[in-house]
Structures are given as structure tokens and as C-alpha cells.
Amino acid sequence: MRLLALVFLICLWLPACSVADLSGCPQKDVGLVGQEDGVAGRAATLPRPDCMLGIADVQRYEDGRRDGLRRYCSAQRGYQLGLEGTAINTAVCSADFVKELERGHAVGASLRQHLSQRDQLLSQAQDIERIAADQAEDSPERLALLQQAADARFQARQHDNEVEALRGVVAVEKWR
After folding, report:
1. pTM of the model
2. How many CB atoms lie within 10 A of CB 93?
3. Among 25, 84, 104, 133, which is disulfide-ready with 75 (CB 3.0 to 4.6 Å)?
């Protein structure tokens, strides 16, 4: 009985006897998990009730996340996300980097929009030209359709000019 009481007292004094809950902890390095959270623009996921980390592990997670956020909160990453049509999370970035992330995102989103509109207009022009080909050679219907196709191609060229201007920005900024 005395021995049991002594063991109990020792366990109260030694922090090693109080085991943290690690059941929900990731199997991979917490520094890598932090980096992945940061690069994805996610809020901190560790520590949490089912994954209580030691001080060294918390520091590794935070260092990894900080490194990931440096890459996420950049104009280049914003550009990539805008080009993909993915929303950005400015809440995870410090005020100094929010404008850069938003600037890159605006360029990427604009490029995506102009590419889509250009492609749509070119497709419309081809469809109209196919229909016009079935009309009589000098018929007013055919001429009207060919004019519609020409108008669509002209609008597509305007979007193409915007695409080239935006690609120039991307090249100057070296976001590729």
C-alpha cells in the first residue's frame, strides 16, 4: 500500500507521467503539417484537444506554418489562385502582405476571365460561320451572319490584347 502511494505521488510530481492526448495528431512531421496549412492559406489546425503537442512540436508547427504563409501571402500565389478561379483567404496574412496577395489574385482572375471570354467569342464565331456556310452565296442572311462572326472575332481580339497585356505583367513580375 505504501509503495502504491509512493508511485502515485511520484506520478503527480513528474510531468512524464501525465500523458498528453496524441490520438488525433497527424502521422507526419508537425513542421510539414504547419507548412502545408500555411501554403493552403488555412487557419492554424494544431494544437487541438485531440492532439496536444509539446512546446518543441508547437514551435516546429508554427515555424512551418509561418514559412508556408510567407509563400501563400505573396502576389505570385495570389496570381496562381486567381488564374485557377480559387478564392483567397486574406485573414491569414499580415497587413503588409494582404495587398500583394490581392494584387496578384486580381491579375490572375482578370487573365482567366479574358481568356474565357476570348475563347467563348471565337467558338461563337466558328458556330456562326458554319451556319453561314449553309446559306446561299450572296444572300442577306449569309452576309448578316458573316458580319456577326466578324464582330465576335473582333471582340475576341480585344480580349486577346488584354490577355497579352496581363501576360506582360506576369512576365515582368516573374510570377510563373
Report:
1. 0.79
2. 21
3. 104
